[in-house]
Amino acid sequence: MESNIHYVASGQFMVAADRQPLILKALLGTCVGVSVYDSVAGMGGLLHILLPEPVSGASDTHPGKYASTGVPAFLKALIEKGAHPDNMRATVAGGALVGPVSEQDMALDIGGRTAEKVHELLKRYNIPVSASETGGFFTCTLELDLNTGKNRICPSGLLRDPEEAFHYTAPSADAIAASVTGLKPIPQVALKILRMVTSEEADFKAIAAEVRKDQVITAQTLRMCNAALYSGRNQVASIDDALILLGQDTLIKSIISSALKTFYRQSDSVYSLCKGGLFHHAMGTAIVADQLAAHTGAAHRATAYTAGLLHDIGMVVLDQHITSACPLFYRGMKKENHRILEVEKRILGVDHCEVGAKLGLKWAFPENLIHAIRHHHRPEDGKAGDKLAYIVHAADLIMSRFQSGVFPESSRGSIADRLAVLGMGPSDFENFIDRLPMDVFSMQPETVLFKKT
Ligand SMILES: [Fe+2]
Ligand SMILES: [Fe+2]
User: Fold this and answer.
1) What is the CATH number of the domain that holds 254?
2) From CA 97, how far away is CA 401, in angstroms rounded?
3) pLDDT at residue 101 is higher than 60
4) Mean pLDDT of 219-240
5) Do 137 and 207 sit in the same domain of this protein?
6) Which of 22, 53, 223, 251 has the most CB atoms around its CB within 10 Å?
7) How far is the CA of 407 from the centre of ligand 1 (A)?
8) Residue 316 belongs to what domain range?
9) Residue 419: C-alpha distances to residues 270, 290, 381, 389, 431 (Å)
């Protein structure tokens, strides 16, 4: 029987009491994955950790986020479900320094410190480690098969035989341009709202009037609010109800996010390892960019949010082309140290930043958004003093490292130098990550929008 796959999100763990046709899987970059299996009881689980220990000192409701609290909580849950410490065996993976790094970036080696802490704790609890592949510079996946108890650590990208003979013809510039016209565009009303939101003098009444005129946008917005807010009866039935319940800021964010959701969902293959992956990534980046803007004061919050949401729109265009070159793409990512822009350029002749900026021009996005889309991987190549691209870059970096390994950043320069532009040092950055709401890394990052703080 074919096993289903359950992705264990960052900061969470899952324990299963019985053998079953299910594979627990974690996508690991800087995060560390720990699987534990008791072969006598025939049960096990998987833990997906972000950080070595709490740095803010604040009590946290997510023990799985840290090695210091996650490992004990995970082992306790296993024992409660029937595992015995004498029979447990662990496998550890992840903790990589993703992307080319400078000496300064080594100071941010969160993954290395998390892996060290995990090993220290497993030793303290007398749990033997049967396999461990941590550190290095590549993302990987860790899998535990709950039927057989077998573990598998697989470097990202080796989804097919690397030596497989592969014939591929690069698409022409015309073919790529034509695919833009084949996409369902972002609705006009959403574009209008997007321009209003980022003009920094957004008139909410005018925005709400635009939304009320458009039944599709209204329905999409209400669907997103209801899915995140309620599972039961008390549904939000109108934009006016949503305004009372959510307030202006959150409602505006929900309107543009729900419009973009439909756009991102048109492509769900290579760039997105699981269904909806591109949108989750965009949404998470938007929320983190908004919070980075609030934390650093380096950009207008609504603009940072919108730029985060839009930064990878070029991938939606390129996805259909990269799909036919999938093995080449993954192999290139591995060989070329995850320099995604170089790999795209070599295989397709363009990269997703260029294509995204072209889409932005076509749809008359404000200039600062186009700039952020174009330079989100290499903000230092953009206009000096424009910090929006740096905000999006840092948010993208956090999401790619802690959500999964499928959106690796390309770094020629030093990450520490880029954070310094935003006035952030390594410890401030780590503190910022520590304070982020965990749901931002989940499969429904939008729930963060609707939580009152
Ligand atoms: Fe990107
Ligand atoms: Fe991204």
Assistant:
1) 1.10.3210.10
2) 9
3) no
4) 76
5) no
6) 251
7) 7
8) 173-450
9) 29, 16, 15, 12, 13
Q: Residue 162: its pLDDT value, please?
A: 40
> Which is it for the CA torsion 252, 438, 407, 102, positive or negative?
positive
Which bound ligand lies closest to the C-alpha atom of 314? 1
CATH code, domain carrying 39: 3.30.1330.200
CA of residue 105 to ligand 1 center, whole Å = 20
Domain boundary among 125, 155, 185: 155
Q: How far is the CA of 199 from the centre of ligand 1 (A)?
A: 24
Q: Residue 165 falls within a domain, yes or no?
A: no
Q: What mean pLDDT value characterizes the chain?
A: 82
CA of 407 to the centre of ligand 2 (A): 6
Q: Note the ligand closest to the C-alpha atom of 401.
A: 2
Distance 315 CA to ligand 1 centre (A): 8
**In contact, 234 and 276? CB cutoff 8 Å:** no
Domain co-membership, 111 together with 184? no
CA of 329 to the centre of ligand 2 (A): 16
- Residue pLDDT, tens place only, 307-324: 999 999 999 888 878 776
Query: How much distance in Å is there from the Cα of 404 to the middle of ligand 1?
Result: 14
Is there a domain that residue 168 lies in? no
- Model confidence over 410-429: pLDDT tens digits? 455 677 888 889 999 888 88
Are 12 and 42 members of one domain?
yes
Asked whether residue 189 is assigned to any structural domain, the reply reads yes
Q: How far is the CA of 224 from the centre of ligand 2 (A)?
A: 22
- 234 shares a domain with 138: no
The CA 352 to ligand 1 mean position distance, Å, reads: 7
pLDDT digits (tens, 9 = 90+) for 327-339: 667 666 666 666 7
Instruction: Read off the pLDDT of residues 246-297 as tens digits, 9 standing for 90 and up.
Output: 888 888 888 888 888 888 877 755 666 445 578 888 999 999 999 999 999 9
pLDDT tops 50 at residue 42: yes
- pLDDT value at position 304? 95
Report CA(295)–ligand 1 centroid distance (Å).
22
b (16+ CB within 10 A) / e for 303-332 = bbbbbbbbbbbbbbbbbbbbeebebbbbbb
- Measured in Å, residue 341 CA sits from the centre of ligand 1 at 8
Q: Kindly give the distance from the C-alpha atom of residue 391 to the centroid of ligand 1, in angstroms, as a whole number.
A: 13
Give 435 Cα–ligand 2 centroid separation in angstroms. Answer: 21
Q: Report the length, in residues, of the chain.
A: 453
Q: How many distinct structural domains can be found in the chain? A: 2
